[in-house]
Amino acid sequence: MRGRLGIGALLVPSLAAAAAGPACLAVASHPDGAPLAQVEAERGAFTISYVHSVTRTPVEERFRTDGPAIVETEMRFRRHGPGLPTEADAGGSWRREGDVYVVTMERRFDAIPIRVHADQQWRLSVDGDPRPVNLAQWGNRAIALSARPGPCLTGPTGYGAR
C-alpha cells in the first residue's frame, strides 16, 4: 500500500476522473482476499461515504482509478475527529465550503483496507450510477477495495457483479 488512510476511506470525482476509462472495483474480504463483489465504475470515479465513529457526522472520500491504482482526490467532513486530516498534503489544499471542510490530495493506493460496521452506514457510490453499494452487507468486518482497468468480468471467469 502506498500512502496512509485516516479512520476510513471515502469520496467526489476530480477533473482528472473525467478522462478516466472504465474500471472494475473489486471488494474482497480482508486479509484473506476472498472475493465478495465487483462493481463497474464506467468513468473510473467513485465515492466512499460513512458516519465517523467518534463525531457521528458524515464523511465523504472521493477517488478515481489510474490503471490498477486508486487515487484519493478529496475528503469532505463537517466536524474534525480522530483520523481525519489536520492539514493539506504537499500540493493539496484545505478550505471551508459553508459548514464543510474540504481537503484535496493525490494519495495513491494499490488497495484500500476498510473496517466496516453497519452503524456507520458505509457506502460505495460510483459516479453516474444512482445505486450505492452497502459495504456492510457482508457483516461487520474488514474488507479491501482494489481496482483493475476495464469492465468487470462475469460468468465462469468472474465472481459476478453486484
Short synopsis of the structure:
The radius of gyration is 15 Å and the shape is globular.
Protein model, in words:
The protein is mainly β and 162 residues long. The protein has a 7-stranded antiparallel sheet, with no helix packed on it. A hairpin with a 6-residue loop joins strand 3 (45-51) and strand 4 (58-66). The protein has strands spanning 23-29, 35-41, 45-51, 58-66, 69-77, 93-97, 100-109, 111-116, 123-126, 133-134, 141-149. The protein has one domain (15-157).
Topology:
Blueprint: E1 23-29, E2 35-41, E3 45-51, E4 58-66, E5 69-77, E6 93-97, E7 100-109, E8 111-116, E9 123-126, E10 133-134, E11 141-149
Strand content: over 45%
What is the overall pLDDT average? 86
Oligomer: single chain
Distance between the termini: 25 Å
How much helicity do the residues have? under 10%
Identify low-pLDDT runs.
1-19
Biggest sheet record:
7 strands, antiparallel
Estimate nothing, just give the exact number of structural domains.
1
Q: Class by helix and strand content?
A: mainly beta
- What Rg is obtained from the alpha carbons, in whole angstroms? 15 Å
List keywords for this structure.
mainly beta; 162 residues; globular; seven-stranded antiparallel β-sheet; four-stranded antiparallel β-sheet
